[in-house]
Amino acid sequence: MKKIILLPLLLLFASCYQAEHNCKDFKTGKFRFEYEVNGEKKVTLFERNDSIEIETFEGKTDTASIRWVSDCEYILRKLHPKNMAEEKSINMKILTTSGKSYTFEFGIVGSDQKQKGTVTKISD
Fold first, then answer.
1. Of the candidates 10, 30, 77, 97, which lies 20 to 30 Å from 123 by C-alpha distance?
2. Which CATH architecture best describes the domain 23-123?
3. Which residues pair with 29 in a beta bridge?
4. Which first-to-last residue range defines the signal peptide (predicted)?
5. What does pTM read for this prediction?
6. Beta strand pairing call for 90-98 and 73-78
7. CA distance 22 to 26
8. Mean residue pLDDT across the chain
9. Phi, psi of 7, deg, nearest 5
10. Which residues, at least 6 apart from 123, have a Cβ–Cβ distance to it below 8 Å?
């Protein structure tokens, strides 16, 4: 009987929690994205303004246009794609923000496959 009473209370407290969404703080600036591939740490640095994102990965720089769908969602499209895969637009959605970082979800536009990551803002 105690478990039945505790469950609604837990659900009530969980529903009161709302993730932080200060997406406007991350529309522009310099950022760092760290992730792991096959046990190896990879780092991507990028700088973004309202309409352009310049990304540097493993010594190579690439530029993409940005089209903001909302304060927390935008579409990236490479300006100089080198193959068919790079011609596809990528949907980026900021899920939560916390201080100088945000958690996001991304995937190719039109695809159900999504991945998540966390980005840290290193300067304005």
1. 77
2. Beta Barrel (2.40)
3. 48
4. 1-19
5. 0.79
6. antiparallel
7. 8
8. 87
9. -60, -50
10. 29, 30
